[in-house]
Write a structure and sequence with these properties.
Layout lengths: L6 E5 L3 H13 L3 E5 L5 H7 L4 E5 L1 E2 L2 E2 H10 L6 E5 L4 H9 L4 E4 L4 H19 L14 E3 L2 E4 L4 E3 L5 E3 L2 H12 L5 E2 H9 L9 H15 L7 E4 L3 E4 L8
Parallel strand pairs: 1-2, 1-3, 3-6, 6-7
Antiparallel strand pairs: 4-5, 8-9, 9-10, 10-11, 12-14, 13-14
Length: 246
């Protein structure tokens, strides 16, 4: 069975160069989607998966840096190689600190660009090995949820009575998201998208079933679950202070 071709977004306002890049990438066995402005990129990535984005720093309707920030706010994560005519070290450092995976200065050779793309794609694939849900990895440190210690590496919950319960990947993802956003009303949509990804069906009842599983573990060990509450018609809230004496 042949390996699927990676989809590469090319975002560059130099139309001739952008089209030439796309042509070379397709000759190298990739698929491409070209944009000359930033405007439609967030909409595309919200509804479609892409393996990597080649992103020009300077664009007519905004910078590549601001586009990357917008995607992060949307919880859209994609490997990025910045393209620019500016060889300034400051620009390079800024691009990498913002989460860019690589930086290549124009003019560049296509063999070098393709080699850089393959290197970033390999790293991205390796990083995925640690992810067990969209938002949780086995590298996460132990954390507390309602006085229960959650161990991501062992996929295990350790209760105050000394007992333990195994949990699945989705339960871990739900707990990670709740603990990362305490004292905040979280919509069902935001929770589902955080754990399952932005393409998940928000009408699915899977989330409710996983929350019932977590609640059952707490009931079995007679541990309070009252810090986690359902906000009917909206979503949920996790308030670690609830149920604790001051």
């Amino acid at each position: 069975m042949s390996k699927p071709k990676p989809l590469i977004l090319v975002v560059d306002d130099e139309k001739e160069l952008a089209n030439l890049i796309a042509e070379q990438l397709e000759l190298a066995g990739m698929m491409t989607q070209v944009y000359y402005r930033t405007a439609n990129v967030p909409r595309f990535l919200k509804n479609n998966f892409a393996n990597l984005m080649l992103l020009d720093v300077n664009l007519p309707d905004g910078s590549g840096f601001s586009l990357l920030e917008e995607l992060k706010r949307m919880n859209v994560h994609i490997p990025v190689i910045f393209l620019t005519g500016n060889s300034s070290e400051v620009q390079k450092v800024k691009g990498l600190e913002m989460g860019g995976d690589d930086y290549i200065t124009k003019p560049f050779s296509f063999p070098e660009l393709i080699a850089r793309i393959h290197a970033v794609l390999r790293r991205a694939e390796t990083n995925k090995d640690f992810h067990i849900t969209q938002n949780a990895t086995v590298a996460n440190e132990d954390f507390k949820f309602c006085d229960v210690v959650v161990n991501p590496q062992r996929l295990e919950m350790q209760f105050p009575d000394g007992g333990t319960e195994k949990i699945g990947r989705k339960e871990l993802g739900i707990l990670v998201y709740l603990v990362s956003n305490p004292h905040t009303v979280l919509t069902r949509r935001s929770l589902i998208h955080a754990v399952w990804g932005i393409h998940a069906d928000v009408r699915s009842r899977s989330l409710d079933q996983y929350i019932v599983k977590i609640r059952d573990h707490f009931n079995r060990h007679e541990t309070s679950f009252e810090a986690f509450r359902t906000i009917h018609g909206v979503g949920y809230i996790y308030d670690p202070k609830v149920g604790r004496e001051e």
